[in-house]
Amino acid sequence: MMQPRKHFCTRCQKGFCSVPAKQQHISNSLNHNICCLCSSRPDYSTKETLIARFPYGQKGPGALFACNRQFNKPCQLVQHDVDKHNMCATCRQYFNSPSNLKSHKITHAGRNIDCPGCSRRFPTNSAMMLHLEAGTCHSGVDLDELNQLAFNCHQAQSYKSNNPDFDFECPSCQTPFLFMSGLLQHAESDCCEEELGSGDPLGIFLEFARSRIVCESS
């Protein structure tokens, strides 16, 4: 059964079944331009508007406000921002941590992860899982079925949360998550040492879920 999409992005005219799903969309979509240096994280309508707010943008390409350093060439400033200030070299957006920058770079990556229930492809396992959780897959798999698969996997005790407010937790750092897609995204980042290898609990779950969904879809 498809989950109701109560959380709407007016800019993109898309609905989402949960707040985390909408937040992931805003973080990854090139239609949104978040200032990660501001505590309120304002979302600017264009990339140009976001870039223009930085003081060095007003002073010219030779000054950098965060370090108060001077550069003779624009390319030197760009390289410095990439190396020291978590700037994406592809789209020139800034991020408040290396892990957030790494997550963002996925938007520029190829789509190499196949959905086990349909023909769609995704850049990451977490994006594929979010697609299934949202109930948008032609296989009919939804959030409830995915959660049941997660609990039926023999590795469930490694990532099942004891916190009644959360279903899952990271096997390495015990950070709790409401959704498996959020846990997978956490493992894909540099937040902790958890990985999605074939011998890791989450990697084993992915193979288990994939095999079950393929069998049900065939």
List the helices and strands and how they pair.
Blueprint: E1 7-9, E2 14-16, H1 19-28, E3 33-34, E4 43-44, H2 47-52, H3 55-59, E5 63-64, E6 69-70, H4 74-84, H5 98-105, E7 113-114, E8 121-122, H6 125-133, H7 143-152, H8 156-159, E9 168-169, E10 176-177, H9 180-188, H10 201-217
Antiparallel strand pairs: 1-2, 3-4, 5-6, 7-8, 9-10
Helix pairs in contact: 6-9
Alpha-beta content class = mainly alpha
Shape: globular
| Radius of gyration, taken over Cα atoms and rounded to an integer in Å | 20 Å
H and E string: EEHEEHHEEHHEEHHHEEHH
Distance between the termini: 19 Å
The unreliable regions are 55-65
According to DSSP, the number of beta strands is: 10
Specify the oligomeric state.
single chain
The main sheet comes to: 2 strands, antiparallel
Count of distinct structural domains: 2
Question: What is the percent of helical residues?
Answer: 40-55%
Total number of helices: 10
**Strand order, biggest sheet?**
1-2
Strand content: 5-15%
Average of pLDDT: 81
Pfam family, one: zf-met
Domain C2H2-type: 86-113, 113-143
Protein name: C2H2-type domain-containing protein
Organism: Aspergillus cavernicola
